[in-house]
């Protein structure tokens, strides 16, 4: 049969729609489709390969190849020309298939007589579901028009596959998409376990009519949606609360650029002209963007492609008439699933959420900070979760291990519930300890404080049995705004916090920003090594306006009550002296303006860099209290980035070297009579907490949920005995005291 270039996608799509409307099982549908395409494009062969799982592609229908090879011929992703297309998500067009790199001879198909080969991925939103191939004997490269038509047809096949249109009995019992159990191993963002139902931050669009015979109408729908999109972006840009949607100005400017990008819009329009519904036309572009995203390594370009992807999602939602609020109908047992989320959006959902699962995100991201402040279990970097999860799916989130089970099998769910029951039982036990002190069996009392970062945390203060707030991270009030907060607003927040604490002490840590925590209104500085860079107090001392304003707000918020201020990331005596002087100057000024000054002022420093442990004695005399920021201190002690999964768990807090260092700090503080506490995450881990107490730490600050377990363990141990075990190990030649300590605990019948 001679090959002809005259192809009209609209004719093929119209026929395809009729075919799809006919009754029939999955296999019949596929058979009809390959016949129709072969006829429409005048190809001697048309075949559809579908992915059976992550690894295998299977020939599911063919017109032209030997019928007996259907469901017999299988290829791995990456194997042969078809596997290569699936792997790269790129078309392959060759006049001489047998001599094209990667070609694999499959005798059972009889395809060796066909020289020309054109294959395109069947993909939806960047995920390859299969491959569509045409072949001809005559040696020739297919024209761009033919490639385009085949891609358009492949889009429709992908949409239909998504709807489960090809499922049928026998070999076509390929799992209905998004129906079986799915498991993802992510990274711990915030500990805790939860069971609930998925709510997608950005709901998927279901397209039941991928083909349209009225391009004019579709173009009009597209234009209306594009105009609305432009408006939406302009409004966001004008908004004073940019971060209310988690966006930064730079991102929005990129949005604006894409939203009016003629090339992007023209390509979508061309797809509509060729017979696709507007939504599918947008998705076709989105798939191409996602495929590019997976290949590009340059982080800047990748980010911009991400922005384009976000914009496509917005456009799709506008086309489908789904507004952002639809997704906010939060059920009682909601587990939020998102690719990423800004701090303000997450705060909007607030405590209504049982857990959060993100496909991206990092341990130090703003969302993680908010999740931590809200004490919501969080798993980050859960691969493919937004693709797999559907609104309403049952989901189990294990924030302790970073695991997510979507649509779990009953046996998995049962085991998970057992774990949750154990946690709940333990919580009940801890509630009975609420009013009791954390006094060990040998009479040592350790003060347990809680960490907080939001007004909403304060109710936990009484519930968890903490004696005060040992660390109030003040950055959230800065992170969720698009402009520097006003002094009066901040003072009001601090006032409310002190009211809610009803006399219990609250240690306010001044703004700890920089490194990964970038404020939307502060120009971000490109630093080669941000954790060691211009951050926290360093930034505060160089940009004094913001720090002074915050100090004034703290003084006004205290309104004559006692005030505890702590400076983050102090590296030497001079930095502390300078910061302290700034605070004292502000107090003088406020006094001069007639504002009440704090009844009692305590000025502390966070010890987060090893250098401060060796500061001159004058530092220990000058500072009113020291709080060890173990998260940062440990990363600098071991030179292991706290956010880098490859290294962050590599070194043990209970290593003898680290404990020797911590004990030296405690000893110096004791000699200078400087109160010292520990407020990193380790303080909330029972075995670590007991060890810190044993080496002399009498004050610990942790997330509220940890107070119960830590108090229970402290009350059940003889600290003198613990110290003996630790001291023996520290004088010995071992790396860590953990094995001996755990053994001793279990020999003594103490439950950790
Ligand atoms: C720390 O470094 O231990 C700490 C408490 O501060 P952050 O985690 O906010 O850096
Ligand atoms: Mg820190």
What report would you give on this structure?
The chain is an alpha/beta fold. It has four domains: 9-172, GAF domain (Beta-Lactamase, 2-Layer Sandwich), CATH 3.30.450; 182-203 and 328-423, Phosphohistidine domain (Glucose Oxidase, domain 1, 3-Layer(bba) Sandwich); 215-320, PtsI, HPr-binding domain (Enzyme I, Chain A, domain 2, Orthogonal Bundle); 432-747, Phosphoenolpyruvate-binding domains (TIM Barrel). It contains 27 helices and 22 strands. The longest helix is centred in the first third of the chain and has 24 residues, at 215-238. It is elongated, with a radius of gyration of 31 Å. It starts with 8 loop residues before the first helix and ends in a 5-residue tail after the last helix. Magnesium ion binds next to helix 22.
CATH architecture label of the largest domain: Alpha-Beta Barrel
Biggest sheet, open or closed, and with what strands and sense? 8 strands, mixed
**Uncertain residue ranges:** 240-247
Bound molecules: phosphoenolpyruvate, magnesium ion
- Per CATH, the class of the largest domain reads Alpha Beta
- Count of DSSP-assigned helices: 27
Provide the CATH topology of the largest domain: TIM Barrel
In terms of DSSP E residues, the strand content is 15-25%
- The strand count comes to 22
Specify the helix fraction band.
Answer: 40-55%
| Assembly state of the chains shown | single chain
| N→C terminal distance | 77 Å
Sheet/helix structural class = alpha/beta
CATH superfamily of the largest domain: Phosphoenolpyruvate-binding domains
Number of domains: 4
Average of the residue pLDDT scores: 88
């Amino acid at each position: 049969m001679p090959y002809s270039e005259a192809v009209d996608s609209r004719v093929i799509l119209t026929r395809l729609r009729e075919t799809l409307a006919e009754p029939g099982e999955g296999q019949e549908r596929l058979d009809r489709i390959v016949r129709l395409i072969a006829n429409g494009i005048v190809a001697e062969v048309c075949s559809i390969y579908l992915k059976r799982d992550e690894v295998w592609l299977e020939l599911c229908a063919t017109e032209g190849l030997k019928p007996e090879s259907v469901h017999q011929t299988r290829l791995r992703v990456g194997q042969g020309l078809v596997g290569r297309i699936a792997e790269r998500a790129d078309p392959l067009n060759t006049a001489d298939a047998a001599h094209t790199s990667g070609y694999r001879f499959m005798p059972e198909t009889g395809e060796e007589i066909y020289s020309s080969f054109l294959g395109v991925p069947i993909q939806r939103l960047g995920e390859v579901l299969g491959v569509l191939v045409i072949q001809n004997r005559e040696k020739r490269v297919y024209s761009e028009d033919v490639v385009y038509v085949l891609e358009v047809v492949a889009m429709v096949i992908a949409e239909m596959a998504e709807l489960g249109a090809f499922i049928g009995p026998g070999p076509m019992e390929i799992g209905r998409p998004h129906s079986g159990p799915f498991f993802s191993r992510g990274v711990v963002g915030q500990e805790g376990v939860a069971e609930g139902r998925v709510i997608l931050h950005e709901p998927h669009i279901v397209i039941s009519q991928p083909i349209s015979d009225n391009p004019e109408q579709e173009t009009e729908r597209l234009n209306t949606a594009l105009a609305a999109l432009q408006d939406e972006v302009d409004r966001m840009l004008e908004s004073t609360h940019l971060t209310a949607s988690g966006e930064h100005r730079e991102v929005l400017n990129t949005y604006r650029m894409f939203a009016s990008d003629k090339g992007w819009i023209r390509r979508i329009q061309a797809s509509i002209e060729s017979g696709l519904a507007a939504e599918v036309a947008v998705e076709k572009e989105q798939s191409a963007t996602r495929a590019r995203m997976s290949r590009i390594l340059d982080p800047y370009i990748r980010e911009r492609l991400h922005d384009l992807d976000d914009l496509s999602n917005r456009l799709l939602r506008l086309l489908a008439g789904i507004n952002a609020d639809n997704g906010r109908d939060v059920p009682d047992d909601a587990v939020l699933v998102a690719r990423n989320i800004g701090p303000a959006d997450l705060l909007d959902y607030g405590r209504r959420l049982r857990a959060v699962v993100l496909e991206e995100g990092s341990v130090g991201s703003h969302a993680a900070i908010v999740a931590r402040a809200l004490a919501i279990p969080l798993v980050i970097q859960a691969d493919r979760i937004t693709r797999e999860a559907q609104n309403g799916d049952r989901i189990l989130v294990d924030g302790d291990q970073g695991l997510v089970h979507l649509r779990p099998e009953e046996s998995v769910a049962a085991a998970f519930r057992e774990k949750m029951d154990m946690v709940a039982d333990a919580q009940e036990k801890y509630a009975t300890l609420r009013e009791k002190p954390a006094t060990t069996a040998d009479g040592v009392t350790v003060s347990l404080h809680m960490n907080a970062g939001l007004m909403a945390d304060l109710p936990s203060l009484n519930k968890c049995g903490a004696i005060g707030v040992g660390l109030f991270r003040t950055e959230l009030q800065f992170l969720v705004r698009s402009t520097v907060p006003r002094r009066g607003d901040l003072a009001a927040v601090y006032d409310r916090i002190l009211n809610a604490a009803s006399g219990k002490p609250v240690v306010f840590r001044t703004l700890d920003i920089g490194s990964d925590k970038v404020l939307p209104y502060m120009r971000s500085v490109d630093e080669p090594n941000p954790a060691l860079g211009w951050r926290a107090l360093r930034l505060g001392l160089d940009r004094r306006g913001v720090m002074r304003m915050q100090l004034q707000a703290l003084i006004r918020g205290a309104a004559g009550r006692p005030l505890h201020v702590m400076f983050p990331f102090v590296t030497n005596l001079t930095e502390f002296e300078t910061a302290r002087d700034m605070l004292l100057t502000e107090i003088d000024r406020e006094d001069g303006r007639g504002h009440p000054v704090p009844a009692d002022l305590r000025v502390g420093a966070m010890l987060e860099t090893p250098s401060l442990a060796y500061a001159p004695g004058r530092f220990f005399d000058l500072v009113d209290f020291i709080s060890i920021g173990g998260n940062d201190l440990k990363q600098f002690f071991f030179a292991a980035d706290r956010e880098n999964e490859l290294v962050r768990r590599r070194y043990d807090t209970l290593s003898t070297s680290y404990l020797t260092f911590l004990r030296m700090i405690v000893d110096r503080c004791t000699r200078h009579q400087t109160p010292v506490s520990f407020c990193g995450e380790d303080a909330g881990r029972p075995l670590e907490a007991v060890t810190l107490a044993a080496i002399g730490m009498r004050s610990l600050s942790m997330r509220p949920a940890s107070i119960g377990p830590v108090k229970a363990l402290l009350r059940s141990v003889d600290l003198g005995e613990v110290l003996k075990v630790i001291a023996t190990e520290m004088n010995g030649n071992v790396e860590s005291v953990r094995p001996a300590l755990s053994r001793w605990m279990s020999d003594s019948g103490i439950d950790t």
